[in-house]
C-alpha cells in the first residue's frame, strides 16, 4: 500500500460566504499568521501561525468537496484568505492547484505585502486576486499596518502585467483613510492597472471588537465611528471618476 503525503499548513477556520470573497458562493479558507497589524483588523485571532490548526491539503480538499456541487451551481469557488495566505505560499499554492484540478474558480485574498512569495505557478492557479490597498501615503500606510506599502504596489503592477484579474479592496475609516488626496492617490494608481474588475469600498465596522476583548488586547479604533453614507458616497465617487466600477 502506498501513502500519499500532502503538505500541511496552519489554518484558523473555513466557512461558506456569498458576495464578498469573490463571485458566487465561496468555500473560504482562513489561514493563520499575518505580518501586518492593521489598526482596523477584525481578525486578530488569525495573527499568529502557532494559534492555527495544522491541517493537510487533503483535509481541506475533503471538506471543500462536500460543498463542491453546491459551489459549482452557485457560480462560486475557493477563496484563500487569512491572516495572510502568502505567509504559507507552498501550502496555499497546493490548495489552489487542487481546487483548479477540480474545476473550481479560485481566489486569493491578500494584502500583497508578501506578493514576492507568490510564484508564477501559484498565480497561474489563481483566477482572481482580492488585493487590499489600505492607504496611499507611505507614512499613513505604515502607521495603519506596521509595514511598508511598496511590496503591495509592486505586486499590483505584476498582477496587471500578468493579466491577472483583481478586485481592489479599500477599508474606509473616518479620520484615518478618508483623506481626499489619499483616496485620490489610490484611485489614480489603480486606474493605471489593466486588470482591475472592481473596487470594493468597505465601510469600517467594529464587529471584531469582541475578539480583542477575548484576547485581552485593546481595540485601537474602539472610539472611531463607522463612516456615514455621505462619506462612503464621496469616496465611491472618487473611484468612479477614474472609471473604476465600485461597490
Ligand atoms: S492584513 Fe488582514 S489579517 Fe492582517 S492585520 Fe491587516 S486586516 Fe488583519
Automatic annotation (TrEMBL):
Enzyme class, spelled out: oxidoreductase
Family of this protein: Belongs to the organic radical-activating enzymes family.
Alphabetical UniProt keywords: 4Fe-4S, Cytoplasm, Iron, Iron-sulfur, Metal-binding, Oxidoreductase, Pyruvate, S-adenosyl-L-methionine
Protein name: Pyruvate formate-lyase-activating enzyme
Highest rank taxon of the organism: Bacteria
GO cellular component, one term: cytoplasm
Subcellular location: Cytoplasm
PROSITE patterns assigned to the protein according to its UniProt record, in alphabetical order: RADICAL_ACTIVATING, RADICAL_SAM
InterPro entries, per the entry: Aldolase_TIM (IPR013785), Organic_radical-activating (IPR034457), Organic_radical_activase (IPR012839), PFL1_activating (IPR012838), Radical_activat_CS (IPR001989), rSAM (IPR007197), rSAM_sf (IPR058240)
Molecular functions (GO terms): 4 iron, 4 sulfur cluster binding; [formate-C-acetyltransferase]-activating enzyme activity; metal ion binding
Cofactor: binding details: Binds 1 [4Fe-4S] cluster. The cluster is coordinated with 3 cysteines and an exchangeable S-adenosyl-L-methionine.
Lineage of source species: Bacteria, Bacillati, Actinomycetota, Actinomycetes, Pseudonocardiales
Cofactor(s) of this protein: [4Fe-4S] cluster
Primary residence: cytoplasm
Catalytic activity: glycyl-[formate C-acetyltransferase] + reduced [flavodoxin] + S-adenosyl-L-methionine = glycin-2-yl radical-[formate C-acetyltransferase] + semiquinone [flavodoxin] + 5'-deoxyadenosine + L-methionine + H(+)
Domain Radical SAM core: 20-242
EC code(s) of this entry: 1.97.1.4
